[in-house]
Amino acid sequence: MIFEGDFSVIEAIREKKQLMDLDEPHEHIKPMLFFDGGLMKGAYGVGAGLALEQLGYNKIFTSVVGVSSGAPSAAYFLSGETSVGASLVWEECCSRKFINPWRIWNQVDTFFLSAVLRGVTGKGINADKVFSSGIDLYIAVADFETGSPELLRPRDEEELLTAIQASILMPNVSSDKVKFNDMRYVDGGFTRPHSLMKAIKEIEATHILFITNQDKTATTLPRLERFFNHTIFRHRMPKPLRFAAHERRRERMKAVEYLHKHHNIPCALVWGDHSIRSTERNKEIAKSVIEKSRLWWKALLEGDSPSKT
Predict the structure, then answer these.
(1) 168 Cβ contact partners less than 8 Å away, ≥ 6 residues apart
(2) Which has more confidence, 153 or 278?
(3) What are residue 288's phi and psi, to 5 degrees?
(4) Higher confidence at residue 293 or residue 104?
(5) What pairs with residue 151 in β-bridges?
(6) Which of 7, 5, 39 is nearest to 214 (CA)?
(7) How far apart are the first and last CA of the chain?
(8) Model confidence over 241-265: pLDDT tens digits?
(9) What is the pTM (predicted TM-score) of this model?
(10) C or N: which end of the chain has fewer Cβ atoms within 10 Å?
């Protein structure tokens, strides 16, 4: 993993935890935790959630945002059951039931994953724990017609699970359809501008911790994906959404540049290190990346300065 940005963000969440442990005033520190997407690259964020949870940082953040594969990570984190979400990654998510590139009509089955999140395999999200955490949860999605970002605020279990399914639904590789309050939404990473821009403008925060779940050097989409989006999958996305999907990596970098150059709130970002592919189905790789990320974050949170890799 690669740390980038202001280390004062880590110092601030440490300080808030100390103040909370001492039962002293801490409301002046309002950190936001942002879990970005990346399909199986979400393993990076799962490892981060494990470390934060194991070190007692569950209650530190005033707001948590989940995008795409980062949406279930955010929910499991707030429920205090990140370990459940971790096992789901290397078991259910590595199965052909979820990702199957040869199932052209529906390569990523979000209804299968939604059933898992609802508990069909015994690993459901405990919505009661999520909502009793006292932390504001936002699930980022894209408007199907325009590709513009929206932040959903689920209020009950059904809304939570529906919002998460919408946020992970990549319409180019999934034929599933999901509506939230009669509006059709899709993957929160298919937005223009990036969902992070929406979050920093609408959510009050004093510090931002951005888990990108991405490899920093990957700034453009593979040519094959662009080809398929313009041909085989063209009918699945309106033009504005297709354009947003094509530009999603550039939009992320634009948001990062804005954080560095124009935003006046301390921000810290953590990037991946090319340890896992977005369509990874090797269980051992997924498991090892989660553990590697957990150990890296543990060292970061317990140390005096960030490790670069």
Answers:
(1) 37, 68, 69, 71, 72, 108, 110, 113, 187
(2) 153
(3) -70, -35
(4) 293
(5) 140
(6) 39
(7) 5
(8) 988 888 888 899 999 999 888 888 9
(9) 0.92
(10) C
Share of the chain above pLDDT 70, in %: 93
**Per-residue confidence (pLDDT) for residue 182, from 0 to 100:** 93
Q: Are 167 and 188 in contact (CB under 8 A)?
A: yes
CA-based radius of gyration for the chain: 18
Is residue 45 exposed (0-12), middle (13-18) or buried (19+ Cβ within 10 Å)?
Answer: buried
Write phi, then psi, for 136 (nearest 5 degrees). -70, 125
Across 75-189, the runs of DSSP E, i.e. the strands, are 136-143, 149-152, 179-180, 183-186
Give 155-161 contacts, CB < 8 A, sequence gap 24+: 156/127, 156/131, 157/127, 157/128, 160/75, 160/125, 160/127, 160/130, 161/114, 161/117, 161/118, 161/125, 161/127
Largest CA distance in the chain: 59
| 8 A C-beta contact, residue 201 and residue 194 | no
Length of the chain in terms of residues written: 309
CA 180 – CA 268 distance, rounded (Å): 31
Instruction: Identify whether the C-beta of residue 140 lies closer than 8 Å to the C-beta of residue 71.
Output: yes
Query: What is d(CA 138, CA 150) in angstroms, rounded to the nearest whole number?
Result: 9
How far is 6 from 177, CA to CA, in rounded Å? 39
289-298 average pLDDT score: 96
Which tokens in the block code for residue 230?
């313009």
Structural tokens at position 252 = 């992320």
What pLDDT band is residue 233 in, cutting at 50, 70 and 90?
Answer: low
Residue 188 gets which letter from DSSP?
Answer: T
Task: List, in order, residues 6 or more apart from 274 with CB less than 8 Å away.
Answer: 215, 217
Tell me the pLDDT tens digit for each residue of 98-130. Answer: 988 888 778 889 999 999 999 999 999 999 999
What's the pLDDT tens digit per position in 205-221? 999 999 999 988 766 66
